[in-house]
Amino acid sequence: MEERERHGGIPESLKTVLGFFILLAAWQLAASSGIWSAYVLPPPAKVAKALAKMVESGVLFRHILVSGRRVLAGFSIAFALAMAGGILASQISRAEEYYSGFLEFMRNVPPISLIALLILWFGIGETSKIIIIVLASFFPMYLNIRKGFLSASKMLLEVGIVFRLNRWQRFCHIVLPSAVPDILVGMRIGLGYSWRAIIGAEMIAAASGLGYLILDAQQMSRSDKVIAGILTIGVVGILCDKIFSLLIGRVAGARGEGGAE
User: Which end of the chain has fewer CB atoms within 10 angstroms, the N or the C?
Assistant: First the structure.
């Protein structure tokens, strides 16, 4: 890292800030060029004004909280199902033969394509919205968790057998600890997919949430609010991703220190 910064001359954090300002300048240039009207592409100042007004009134935070609750509910259910599926795949390998085909099929079906069917089955309440988020976030978590459980050291498992540990004890003391980094990576990716699915989830007769905010602004021809809502989802998603990155870093660091000892 230090060698790269010494040769490149620009720190990584400064490059990120410069990239942001270049993008902002390009946006301003495109908006003021006259190629697109302010209705189609509002200038950054107009978007910032709309964003500030929503922050001042508290409307934006209310939408963030509603979407956050839905994301948390869907993400939690998806994580529980992914853990259960990963445990089943690692502990009873033959069981996976019965459901792997169905999972592979569902993995290739876009959750948004199921909206009409979910409305018929569950109505327009919270259940349909949460199911969309579950379907979006389940598969990246399941694949990473399964990989973590199946990648446990064969040597350590043999040591566990020598010490007469039963299957559950080997799982708790050997398999699960070794899978923690993969579990956290899967959770990080799954949470990102949860936020990406919020627009589709809140297309189902929502009256609040960031997805509703964007769709309502589009119907009212307020492109400044549409962009403000998109930026908000991006910022919230980045904050969640940074939290998981720090958590993964701490776990990896702790495992490294433990290994060194």
Answer: C
Separation of alpha carbons 220 and 202, rounded Å? 17
- pTM here is 0.82
Locate 204 and state its tokens. 């189902």
pLDDT digits 0-9 by tens, 170-218: 888 888 888 888 998 899 899 989 988 888 888 777 888 898 899 888 8
Q: In this structure, what are the phi and psi dihedrals at residue 198, rounded to the nearest 5 degrees? A: -65, -35
Nearest to 185 by CA among 251, 136, 239: 251
| Residue found under tokens 């592409």 | 41
Q: Who has greater pLDDT, 242 or 34?
A: 242
Kindly give, in sequence order, each residue whose CB lies less than 8 Å from that of residue 224, ignoring residues fewer than 6 positions away: 42, 46, 47, 49, 50, 217
Question: How do residues 222-256 score in pLDDT, each as one tens digit?
Answer: 899 999 999 999 899 888 888 888 877 777 666 65
| Residue type present at position 74 | G
Measured CA to CA, the distance from residue 90 to residue 183 in angstroms comes to 14
Are 210 and 233 in contact by the 8 Å Cβ rule? The answer is: yes
User: How far is it, in rounded angstroms, from Cα 141 to Cα 127?
Assistant: 21
Q: What pLDDT sits at residue 253?
A: 66
